């Protein structure tokens, strides 16, 4: 879906496991998006509050290879 939905706005890509790392590669090398990359060590969540209000956001919600899940979505503005 990211191949058809991203592009007009900058994007924040969050990665902490293999799927997210693949999406970083897609966003930067394949799609050449205006992307800010937020990477944390495998299995550790990056600071999700770093998501910019004017940017789209890419992240792994659940089912991650590291067994990490996002505890809540309070870091995403309600008007998004």
Describe, in plain words, how this protein is organized in 3D:
- This protein has one domain.
- 21% of the residues lie in helices and 16% in strands.
- The protein is built from two helices and three strands, in the order αβαββ.
- A three-stranded parallel β-sheet has the order 2-1-3, with helices on one face.
- The model has no long low-confidence stretch (mean pLDDT 90).
Radius of gyration (Å): 12 Å
**Kindly state the mean pLDDT as a whole number?**
90
Order of helices and strands: HEHEE
What count of helical segments does DSSP give? 2
Main structural class:
alpha/beta
Strand content: 15-25%
What is the 3D form?
globular
Question: Can I get a quick summary?
Answer:
The chain is α/β, with parallel strands linked by helices.
Give short descriptive properties of this protein.
3 strands; three-stranded parallel beta sheet; 80 residues; alpha/beta; 2 helices
Layout of strands and helices, then pairs:
Elements: H1 2-5, E1 11-15, H2 18-30, E2 35-39, E3 56-58
Parallel strand pairs: 1-2, 1-3
């Amino acid at each position: 879906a990211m191949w058809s939905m991203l592009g007009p706005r900058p994007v924040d890509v969050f990665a902490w496991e293999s799927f997210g790392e693949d999406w970083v590669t897609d966003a930067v090398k394949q799609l050449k998006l205006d992307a800010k990359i937020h990477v944390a060590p495998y299995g550790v969540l990056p600071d999700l509050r770093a998501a910019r209000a004017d940017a789209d956001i890419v992240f792994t919600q659940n089912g991650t290879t590291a067994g990490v899940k996002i505890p809540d979505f309070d870091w995403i503005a309600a008007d998004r």
